[in-house]
Design a protein that fits this description.
Blueprint (H helix, E strand, L loop, with lengths): L17 H17 L3 H5 L11 H25 L8 H20 L4 H8 L12 H27 L4 H15 L8 H4 L7 H7 L7 H14 L2 H23 L4 H10 L3 H14 L4 H13 L4 H12 L5 H11 L7 H12 L10 H14 L5 H13 L5 H9 L9
């Protein structure tokens, strides 16, 4: 059979590589840029400016004017005010502004809101530093250096390693800014150390944040014995609580929680905090805040009885009366010795020529209401003679009614 010749296929056009295509296109562009225009080859004469024909230029101007008129019409429709006349629209703006100001005045802003808003306000109106600012910064640096030197000298006199001093100084700086999270381990082991007071001093407790104070109180209340906890309450917690109340006219939430935790070591709390507070010039605000904590936490009757005995030995003051009333309202089963001491305390005011305030009468009323069964006939008669001289319009009749009850304690 004759061989059939195969049709020869045309070879497909193969594209050059991409790199070569890019290079070729760049060369072409460069060649076009280098070639002069044909007009410039001839005589090198300057090109004459080209103008639009007269008919075409008129049409362009008409279209431009038409577009400007349309834009003006659109703006007048979209704008809510007519800025040409101005009078009536200004009155409308004033009315809207007055309405908005009335709404702002009606909004009540609490102290917490003001505190949160102040976080977003600039600290100063200008970022420029004056000469007074620089001088105050220098003075502050010197004071901080003196404090650091005093801490180091105290540490050296106690025989502490400088490395340990540096560690606890850094821990104190961290506690000054602490809000939540983990506590450094060197701080956690302080209750187990013999020189725990020195280590605590290195952390500068007066600069702790309220959150750090709460954690420290919880840790020391659970880890220290009553005597050591009493030292912590008296040297660290006591001044911090009073300072915060006097400064802010209220007590920080975390410091309030610290007081509640401190009562879990009741003997340490009474000896290291409550009794020193009652002996000193305690303000009414401080007494009310501490009394609210006392009323909310369960305290063993033995510790409360001892505290009542100590309070009944003190001179009269409003805070002492408030603390006595708060503890009596917890309705403990008190020993006879405590009842006798309280009756004697109130009976001593029979010869007092002062007009006693309401808190004294309220404390006496609480005593006879809660413990009239434990009063002897003789004690009731003594209190009756007291209220003949020390009277209150509404409270004294209630005291007399309770004292006239038949329930009495047998005298021994």
């Amino acid at each position: 059979m004759p061989k059939v010749k195969k049709k020869s296929r045309k070879k497909a056009h193969r594209h050059a590589p991409l790199e070569k295509q890019i290079a070729d296109s760049n060369m072409k562009k460069e060649g076009n840029l280098r070639q002069p225009r044909p007009e410039a080859r001839d005589s090198g004469a300057k090109e004459a400016p080209e103008f639009l024909p007269e008919r075409l230029s008129k049409k362009v101007l008409q279209q431009a004017q038409k577009q400007q008129e349309e834009e003006k019409i659109g703006q007048s429709k979209a704008a809510p005010h007519n800025f040409v006349t101005g009078d009536s629209d200004d009155e409308d703006d004033d009315e809207l502004l007055e309405a908005e100001l009335e709404e702002v005045d009606n909004i009540e802003i609490t102290e917490e809101d003001e505190r949160e808003l102040s976080l977003f306000m600039p600290t100063s109106s200008s970022s420029r530093r004056t000469l007074a600012d620089i001088i105050m910064d220098k003075i502050k640096e010197k004071e901080e250096a003196k404090e650091a030197n005093a801490v180091e000298e105290e540490a050296e006199s106690s025989g502490l390693d400088p490395k340990i001093v540096q560690v606890y100084t850094d821990v104190g700086s961290y506690l000054g800014q602490y809000s939540s999270g983990k506590i450094p381990k060197p701080f956690k082991i302080i209750p187990t150390l013999k020189a725990w007071e020195h280590m605590l001093y290195l952390t500068v407790p007066e600069k702790w944040s309220p959150n750090a104070m709460f954690y420290a109180t919880k840790m020391f209340a659970s880890s220290l014995n009553p005597k050591m906890a009493q030292r912590f309450y008296n040297l660290v917690l006591y001044p911090r609580i009073r300072e915060d109340i006097n400064k802010n006219k209220r007590l920080n939430y975390h410091l309030y929680a610290s007081l509640k935790k401190a009562i879990y070591k009741p003997s340490a709390f009474f000896r290291g905090f409550l009794l020193p507070l009652a002996q000193e010039e305690c303000s009414a605000r401080e007494a009310i805040i501490v009394s609210s904590v006392l009323s909310k936490i369960s305290i063993p009757a033995v510790h409360s009885a001892v505290a009542l005995l100590k309070l009944a030995e003190m001179e009269y003051s409003g805070p002492v009366m408030l603390f006595i009333t708060t503890l009596l309202n917890k309705k403990y089963s008190l020993p006879h010795r405590v009842i006798d001491q309280l009756v004697e305390y109130f009976a001593n005011y029979e010869t007092d020529e002062r007009r006693l305030p309401v808190c004294w009468h309220q404390a006496l009323l609480t005593l006879v209401q809660r413990y009239k069964v434990q009063l002897t006939t003789r004690q009731k008669n003594r209190l009756k003679s007291v209220i003949r001289l020390q009277t209150h319009l509404t409270i004294t009749p209630e005291i007399r009614r309770e004292l006239n009850s038949l329930a009495v304690r047998m005298e021994t």
